[in-house]
Amino acid sequence: MTVPELIRIVSRSSPMALAQVERVRAALTALHPGLRTEVVPVVTTGDRWMGDLAQVEGKGAFTKEVDAALLAGEADLAVHCVKDIPADRPLPAGTTFAAFLERDDIRDALVHPGGLTLDELPAGTRIGTSSVRRTAQLAASHPHLECVAMRGNANRRLEKLHAGEADALLLAVSGLERIGRPDVITQVLSPEIMCPPIGAGVLALQCREHDTEVVDAVSGLGDPDAHRETTAERMLLHVLQGHCNSPIAGYARAERNGDLSLRAKVFTPDGKTVLNAHEWAGPLDPATLGTSVAVALLRQGARDLIDSIAH
Ligand SMILES: NCc1[nH]cc(CCC(=O)O)c1CC(=O)O
């Protein structure tokens, strides 16, 4: 294998995204000691726009400009949160996933400056989140709490919380760890209470398809379990034709005995209807498991729930 001299890494420029890039740079340098890396930060539509994502062509709002830089040859490697990569359409033509990194915590966390847990929050507490997935599940489990729209990267949301725009936040544990703020977590929510999004906690390394030098150089960072779990989850989302504003949650888990399970839920925005499916792969490959669970949800009426949300 010929290792390139330099790999230019493109990413969003939020603190979380830059921390992710530093992790990839460190891992690449450990794997190939002579290799140099450079960071190419870009600002995406999703970073600029603070309104409803559905209004700015929500699909790919956090990935479009990053993928464009990769395809234009301004960078050789893109680092994405899998959670932010659309699954209802193929990856941009000419690009491919070279690796999925070992998975971080998939759970969401409550951030409440007063230190209360979700069950202790008084009626009317304002939870800052614009996520349909979080809003629907909270409406089902804690209907006395109020969700208020809040967007922006995790650091910005913490600032908005302290400025009084909300009383508490729901954020991904992995994201808070990446920005070095796990200290603000008051409660980690189990997946039963707050089912995570597809691709939670997984970073994807994306390359130009024919750039075999770079693909080969970075593929050694891939984690087999993250690959199987992500493949099952993204196929589920693909078959459901879920979009960035979909009330869909789910996660696959590679068990120690080698079997793979996939659980997924589809909600109405008010959380009053919850479709639920859980299957084991057994002899099925991860993508077929994803298809099977998606079909189980479609049989329960998932199409209407997903299509009723503007996108
Ligand atoms: N939508 C922003 C985003 N994209 C990925 C993560 C978390 C990290 C991950 O799951 O990889 C976050 C922040 C959040 O939801 O709190």
From TrEMBL:
Keyword ATP-binding: no
Pfam families the UniProt entry points to: Porphobil_deam (PF01379), Porphobil_deamC (PF03900)
InterPro entries tied to this protein: HemC, Porphobilin_deaminase_cofac_BS, Porphobilin_deaminase_N, Porphobilinogen_deaminase_C, Porphobilinogen_deaminase_C_sf
Class of enzymatic activity (EC top level): transferase
Modified residues (S-(dipyrrolylmethanemethyl)cysteine): C244
Residue ranges annotated for the Porphobilinogen deaminase N-terminal domain, each copy included: 7-214
Reaction it catalyzes: 4 porphobilinogen + H2O = hydroxymethylbilane + 4 NH4(+)
PROSITE patterns per record: PORPHOBILINOGEN_DEAM (PS00533)
Residue ranges occupied by any Porphobilinogen deaminase C-terminal domain in the UniProt entry: 229-298
Known function: Tetrapolymerization of the monopyrrole PBG into the hydroxymethylbilane pre-uroporphyrinogen in several discrete steps.
Self-association and partners: Monomer.
Protein's name according to its UniProt entry: Porphobilinogen deaminase
Biological classification of the source: Bacteria, Bacillati, Actinomycetota, Actinomycetes, Kitasatosporales
